[in-house]
TrEMBL record:
Domain of life the protein comes from: Eukaryota
Family matches, as PANTHER family: INTERFERON-INDUCED VERY LARGE GTPASE 1-RELATED (PTHR22796:SF6), URG4-RELATED (PTHR22796)
Name recorded for this polypeptide: Interferon-induced very large GTPase 1
């Protein structure tokens, strides 16, 4: 075989016989990306403080970031659609980790690419050796090659028959073609500083943020009927009561004093210790003593709200900082019986954030 023929044959093999019929390109790519997604998610859980604990720890970071941003709209999503906010937060953190040619992400991606390359190359070399020894043909080569990669790449070997590659006899050339093709298939730059950003999110069958969302968000999302705080139980549909160590001021959820326009500043944990009553349904005059809140209906019955005075400064700061926004949102006022105590106004944003770390 002349060298000219080898080149021509090489091109034909590249384009038709191997890669397309084996769908090797897509298999290599998918296998690199899905391994990378898991490894990157794992590494982010150890590198990033927001991800290296349970969901309560993540929520603390979410609250810190909400306070830093001071964006009422984002607070609203967190309060009324917490799961949506958690998901957006996780996705943003992941994007940020993957964005700036982070050396930690680069190391993971390079390790995986090197490993996959090695697997494919040694499969090609093994197939060449065996076929040469047995004097087999290209179909035998393809079969051996893809069988040894089956576990590694989840290759489907069923479409191997009838490839019409019997005339190919230069198996060393096949190995060379495969080596060359791996880089082309992955389509990643040679320059290290560009690899992380070239790693395209849309190529992940399951992205690292989706893996982390699954990890953190499969838990109880039931919210306190008074203050909207999210149950901290890590099991969705768990037995027993919903509970949370820290509740919020109930005016944040729109609770107000009957027959007034006054939003309430009370915390549910303080209310349940009082001798007062509340009206669970706006269209009914029936009141329920706070101490018997569980009798108010199904959404109250399964909550364990223990009386205490653990009023987190974070929510006092929040009410003061977003007083006007809350008043506008509910068309009510913090006035009269719902006057914001002067003591609340002395909390700074820094105090608010600090209180998360001190108590939660
Ligand atoms: Zn509550
Ligand atoms: Zn729960």
């Amino acid at each position: 075989m002349s060298s000219v023929n080898v080149v021509v044959l090489g091109d034909n093999i590249t384009n038709n016989a191997i890669l397309q019929k084996l769908k090797l390109g897509e298999s290599i790519k998918q296998s690199v990306y899905s391994w990378a997604a898991n490894e990157l998610a794992e590494q982010m859980r150890s590198d990033l403080p927001a991800f290296n604990g349970n969901r309560s720890n993540l929520e603390k970071h979410i609250l810190k970031s909400l306070a830093e941003e001071e964006d009422f709209e984002r607070f609203k999503t967190y309060i009324f659609n917490p799961r949506d906010h958690f998901e957006v937060f996780i996705t943003d953190v992941v994007k940020n980790y993957m964005k700036k040619d982070n050396p930690r992400a680069l190391a993971v991606i390079k390790k995986i690419i090197a490993h996959k390359k090695q697997c494919v190359i040694s499969a090609a070399e093994t197939a060449s050796k065996m076929v040469t020894k047995k004097k087999g043909d290209a179909n035998m080569w393809l079969e051996k090659f893809s069988t040894s990669l089956k576990d590694e790449l989840e290759c489907n070997t069923d479409h191997l028959s009838g490839n019409n590659c019997e005339d190919i006899t230069d198996f060393q050339l096949l190995t060379e073609v495969v080596k060359k093709e791996i880089d082309l298939v992955l389509d990643l730059p040679n320059n290290d500083s560009k690899i992380v950003s070239a790693f395209k999110m849309e190529h992940f069958r399951k992205r690292p943020d989706e893996i982390l969302i699954e990890h953190f968000c499969q838990c109880c999302w039931v919210q306190c009927p008074f203050c909207k705080a999210i149950c901290t139980n890590t099991l969705e549909g768990h037995p027993g009561d919903h509970s949370i160590p820290f509740h919020r001021s109930i005016g944040i959820n729109g609770w107000f004093y009957r027959r007034t326009e006054n939003l309430s500043t009370d915390f549910c944990t303080t209310c349940v210790a009082s001798d007062r009553s509340f009206y669970p349904y706006s269209d009914s005059e029936q009141s329920v003593p706070w101490k018997e809140y569980r009798t108010a209906g199904p959404k109250y019955a399964n909550w364990s709200i223990t009386p205490d005075f653990s009023e987190l400064p974070y929510w006092k700061w929040f009410v003061c900082r977003f007083q006007k926004d809350l008043e506008k949102h509910y068309h009510k006022k913090y006035q009269g019986s719902g006057e914001i105590p002067d003591e609340w106004r002395k909390y700074t944003k820094k105090d608010a954030i600090k209180s998360l770390y001190k108590y939660i």
